[in-house]
Amino acid sequence: MLQGKHDHSPPTRRFAMRFSLAALTAGLTGPAVAGPATAEALPASSATDAELLALADEFHHLTGRIHAWNAGEIDSEEGEAANADWWDCMREMIDIPATSHQGLKAKARSALEALELVADSQHSGEDLARAVLAQMAQVQA
Question: Model-level pTM?
Fold first, then answer.
């Protein structure tokens, strides 16, 4: 579970699920994508995914910092900063549609990391989202 939640933070599980569902639908429905209407029609890579890929890399790095914070390996000030940046990064990725398999895979990996970091769940809907995201994150373009 994330440490240092601020009162103005959104409910963590609900926000992570929204992010995950956005990632799941990013390449599967027309309105959610900037280009092709189906995941099959997405190209392997796209220069337009550069911002999304950079955010996904930063999100992965920040997830590691939060794990270090939770393990007591970094101080509270650094952990709080990583936590705030993590949420900002997630919010930005929600609004950026993937335009390639590489972008969709990066978004799925980030969504899976968000679900895993926020909390474990016994809810089957979250379990299904985890399974689909894990499979999407492994797909070869």
Answer: 0.65
